[in-house]
Write a structure and sequence with these properties.
Blueprint (H helix, E strand, L loop, with lengths): L3 E4 L2 E4 L4 E7 L8 E7 L6 E7 L4 E3 L7 E6 L4 E6 L8 E9 L4 E4 L3 E6 L1
Parallel strand pairs: 2-11
Antiparallel strand pairs: 1-3, 3-8, 4-5, 4-9, 5-6, 7-8, 9-10, 9-11
């Protein structure tokens, strides 16, 4: 089983930037996809950005043009560069790794991102 650990969250002013990192205990290349999700208080968890094994990326409409997901297979990390942060980006951000077979659906513990005005 893959274990994921997020880091890089914190408090930032609106318009600022943060970079989140997701470190995997095993090789992320064994995963079909790694994604960043977020959950704000009282809201459902939503997908923010996902990167596939071959590097294909998808983004939520709300973050397109502001967030960039990338992976470093050599370091077994997936990063989320967040620019032009908005108040509505405030949430706990989770890293997720998935594989179809053998099944893997691993979550990190989450990292808090707070954007202030």
């Amino acid at each position: 089983q893959v274990q994921l650990v997020e880091s890089g969250g914190g408090l930032v002013q609106a318009g600022g930037s943060l970079r989140l990192s997701c470190a995997a205990s095993g090789t992320i290349f064994s995963l079909d996809a790694v994604g960043w999700y977020r959950q704000a208080p009282g809201q459902q968890r939503e997908a923010v950005a996902v990167i596939s094994r071959i590097g294909t990326t998808t983004y939520a409409d709300s973050v397109k043009g502001r967030f960039t997901i990338s992976r470093d297979d050599g370091k077994n990390t997936v990063s989320l560069q967040m620019n032009s942060l908005k108040l509505e980006d405030t949430a706990v951000y989770y890293c997720n790794g998935k594989r179809t077979w053998p099944i893997i659906d691993a979550w990190g513990q989450g990292t808090q991102v707070t954007v202030s005005s």
